[in-house]
Design brief:
Length: about 160
């Protein structure tokens, strides 16, 4: 069962018709992660690529990842501002200080955390959900579980 900021934001965005896809996808990733037994079973019959080792230029790959993360940050702020603009316009007639809001988000908030992806995730016995949890912990002090120490939740400052 999902609760909290991500779920509330996704519901609000759907009610207002604002595409806050990054938040929705992070909530769906948690839902998919909770299907552990099904994923382990599916991973035995749904096969993926035979090789996953990267053979290209690692420096170039790291730069591409850096650029992708930067782009996703811009998109997450844009989507958040779109939602707030619609709420302020339609419901509260507020004048929002987007600069201050951006600073608040930068200080720690869920907005800073991201059809084939579902199949890929469903057929995997192990998902990078702990990486997502670690990112949520970094940006919002949510804690995460180490795969090497199941049942132990930690916070990294």
């Amino acid at each position: 069962m999902q609760k909290g900021t991500g779920k509330w934001t996704a519901i609000s965005s759907l009610d207002l018709g604002i595409p806050v896809t990054l938040i929705g996808e992070s909530v769906f990733a948690r839902c998919l992660s909770s299907l552990k037994d099904e994923r382990v079973t599916a991973s035995k019959s749904l096969k993926g690529p035979s090789t996953t080792k990267y053979e290209g230029d690692r420096k170039e790959m790291v730069e591409h990842i850096r650029q992708a993360l930067y782009a996703s940050k811009i998109i997450s702020y844009a989507q958040g501002f779109m939602l707030l603009r619609e709420v302020a316009k339609g419901y509260m007639q507020l004048t929002l200080n987007y600069g201050s809001i951006a600073l608040m988000w930068r200080g720690g908030c869920i907005i800073r955390s991201t059809a084939f992806a579902f199949y890929d995730g469903y057929r995997s016995g192990s998902l990078p959900a702990n990486l997502i949890q670690a990112q949520r912990d970094y940006f919002g002090a949510h804690t995460y579980e180490l795969l090497s120490k199941l049942g132990q939740f930690i916070h990294t400052n």
